[in-house]
């Protein structure tokens, strides 16, 4: 059972950290895309959407070039920690966060754009800054869209496979998430083990989504 639970716990850890990171960036990007429309934000919006379009191996390749040992990020990380960033669980977090980001942004952006501009105008007249508008008015009014984005982002991060394999590998006990463990079991013709892991991953993800939906659907 350790071969099942260890990848599951790693998957949960990677998905939670990746979703938190994607949420922080996603809220800011959704805010820009919703209220500061220009050619630059339109171009950035297209770039953010690329993980939905590109094959996972291509996305993984770009990430490998961006955070590998020969990149600025990779060299900086290695100088700070003494070890490479690739083939670590942190690299798996980066891959999952990038893959989840567009699915997280779109519902949040739509919710931001649905906020009544009269509320924002009144708050501006009272002297509210842009950050105060976002934190005290926009986000509370758009909480359902934010929740939808979090759920979609978490589900995507939980099942991320291709890009994670490219930048983190499939090292048992270190970087092998449950999705990678399932692939490894199928490749090794361990179908009973693969069936159990598929069931556990499906039940875990569905249970978390149902709990979130039940908690906030009222």
Could you describe the 3D structure shown?
The chain is mainly alpha-helical and 218 residues long. The protein has a single domain, classed as MetI-like fold, CATH 1.10.3720.10. Helix 1 runs parallel beside helix 5 and helix 3 packs across helix 5. The two termini are 38 Å apart. Belongs to the binding-protein-dependent transport system permease family. CysTW subfamily. Part of the binding-protein-dependent transport system for molybdenum; probably responsible for the translocation of the substrate across the membrane. It is a multi-pass membrane protein. Its main location: membrane.
List the defining traits of the structure above.
single chain; 218 residues; globular; transport; 11 helices; membrane; molybdate ion transmembrane transporter activity; mainly alpha; MetI-like fold
């Amino acid at each position: 059972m350790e071969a099942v639970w260890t990848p599951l716990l790693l998957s949960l850890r990677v998905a939670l950290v990746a979703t938190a990171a994607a949420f922080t960036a996603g809220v800011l990007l959704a805010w820009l895309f919703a209220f500061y429309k220009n050619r630059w934000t339109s171009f950035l919006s297209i770039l953010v959407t690329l993980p939905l379009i590109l094959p996972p191996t291509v996305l993984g390749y770009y990430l490998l070039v961006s955070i590998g040992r020969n990149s600025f990020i990779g060299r900086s990380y290695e100088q700070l920690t003494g070890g490479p960033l690739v083939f670590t669980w942190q690299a798996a977090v980066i891959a999952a966060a990038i893959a989840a980001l567009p699915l997280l942004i779109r519902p949040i952006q739509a919710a931001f754009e649905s906020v009544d501009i009269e509320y924002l105008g009144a708050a501006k007249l009272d002297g509210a800054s842009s950050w105060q508008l976002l934190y005290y008015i926009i986000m509370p009014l758009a909480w359902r869209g934010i929740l939808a984005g979090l759920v979609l982002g978490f589900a995507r991060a939980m099942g991320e496979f291709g890009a994670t394999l490219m930048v983190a590998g499939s090292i048992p006990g270190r970087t092998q998430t449950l999705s990678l463990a399932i692939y490894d079991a199928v490749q090794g013709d361990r179908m009973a083990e693969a069936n159990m892991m598929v069931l556990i991953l499906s039940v875990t993800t569905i249970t978390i989504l149902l709990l979130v939906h039940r908690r906030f659907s009222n």
